[in-house]
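Figure-free illustration: sequence to structure, shown twice.
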Amino acid sequence: MAATRTMMRYGGRRWFTSCSSRALRWWDHVGPASKDPITGAIEAFLADPSPAKINLGVGAYRDDEGKPVVLQCVREAEAKVAGSDYFCLGSKMVEESVKLVYGEDSFVFREQRFAGIQALSGTGACRLFAELQRRFYPDSEIYLPDLTWSNHHNIWRDAGVSRRTFRYYDPETKGLNFSALLDDIKNAPSGSFFLLHPCAHNPTGVDPTEEQWREISSMFKVKRHFPFFDMAYQGFASGCLVKDALSVRIFLEDGHLIGCAQSFAKNMGLYGHRVGCLSVLANNTVQASMMRSQLQQIARSMYGSPPMHGLLLVSTILTNLEIKALWERELKVMTKRVQTMRTALREELEKLGSSLNWQHVTNQVGMFCFSGLAPNEVERLRKEFHIYMTIDGRLSMAGVTPSNTTYIANAIHQVTRERARM
């Protein structure tokens, strides 16, 4: 179609506006982004009109009726937030987060040997660290566990940091491939960056034992690797905040400088508030101050400053002894419910006479069960039973309830029968 030109006169100059097709085709070369596996599962669930559909894809806690939960500690914090001093509580959140992961009496806080900053949940904390790594170690790579949360790859890729993987999960045993993990740590170039899940590994639910963590830390020390922990589920593996931070504290005792991303989305039920913290340990207070200024500059150019309401809620919970104690009790209740559902699901599968080994369902910990279901079996669950999970077979145990356990177990039994006969 011929371009339509309109001549206008302004300030003695001539301007032409064009409605040509060429002027309107700036973004024709842009195609759709590949779907995130978690988002894809949720979208498919929402599009299903079946009243019997079950969502086992989302990683947010649900109660026995499958409904989202607002913790009582959050309700009490809400009541105290009105009229509070935003800036005072804001500074407290970072300090209390650091204590939570490194220990109340840790030298890290006592000697102010950390650079800490509020972040947009765990994702934002990881992204800030990835940018810090790129700026000051531009030739470095990040070693990610195989398997890991899919977004880890996106975060470091978009920060311009090359990614490698180290062996972690063993699909045969559905457990930790510890010897291969140690070999990969040993064979990586000295001074490499590694991302570690300190507890409730996502997506596998497989964590190293205390003794294995000590071996991993020892090998890191020999190789002078840098450990970066993504702490997304503190308290959700064992129900105990201290126990779930054991891996980080082992590395701390061994003299490592550490980076840690913390999120309060899952363990406080604040998924939509995007409250997190990034801390990076330093050799002294001067170094910590310089690193903090760098992190603040990075955050400033990305998003300016984070939202305040979630910050106030987390600060109130962590600084008020009564509310914090209530939070810890509620964490135990949530963890216990997930553990109970693991046992119930395994028992139902075994009652049905499945010849497959379902021991991993109860051996794994945290929010997720890495079921071992094949992609074609996951597809059958969607089409025939309206059960939704990510294509790799990761299912959220928070979506398993007393009322749907038998249905889920029967569906899994039906789609795995052929494999069980082999």
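We now fold a second protein in the same way, so the two outputs can be compared directly.
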Amino acid sequence: MLQIPPPLPRWQSILHPFSWWVWGAIVLSMCCVTVTYHLLDYNFDLPFVTNGMNIIQRIFSKPLTKAPKKWRLRNFIMMWWVALWFISESYTCNLMAVLTVPAFPAKLQTAEDLSKSSYRLCMVDYGEFVDEALAESTHPILSALYRILDMVPSYDTMEHIGEEQCIERVLAGTHAHTETYSYVKILYNKLGHGSKVYSFQEQLYPGYLAFLVRKHAPWKYKFDVGMQWMFENGLMQKWYKDAMDDFKGYFATVCGASQ
């Protein structure tokens, strides 16, 4: 579980329509076009600075102060203007979208993303095997997660045995919180923080619930068939989704009434 990143500052809206790669390509293209435009003027009728200004002016929709006399220069600058028209139209359309919808930084979605980020990992030390498994793992990403893992003590006197410590760090924007998926989703919704956080699509390990029955029970095979049938027909997934939605709606109502 991680905190949803806040929107980017408004001043970055003028830069966000293009990626940094595109901005770099535009700057590099301007330099190359300016040099080429100047070299096409064999007699160097105009100084390099003036030619550079002719190239840059159309970016700001400014007309040429003096049209070049040579046709090769006119043809060249015409092609440059066509390229700038495509760039400006793309920028304008993207800028309208950015100004309409707030721009957010990209979310982390995998364990590899987390291991390469500035976040640390928080977990309550209540005897779970996860920290030992990460420490013994030979997988580079899992071992990297162990190096950023912060174990916090478990307290029986606290309502949620110390999970509150990790929740505080997540809301402070310094840590990710690892815990059983369904439990941590319910926990954050219960405490009124469900809208402030998101969970990874990628999970560290699967969790299973077991139904214990007496050994050699004569009706066990019928129970197995029924469970398999409900799973294959999607009933398990449907009931799980309904249960999680009910928890989310219930806690949202309770939090709204308390406020």
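Summary for the second example: The beta strands are 2-3, 120-125, 149-153, 175-177, 197-198.
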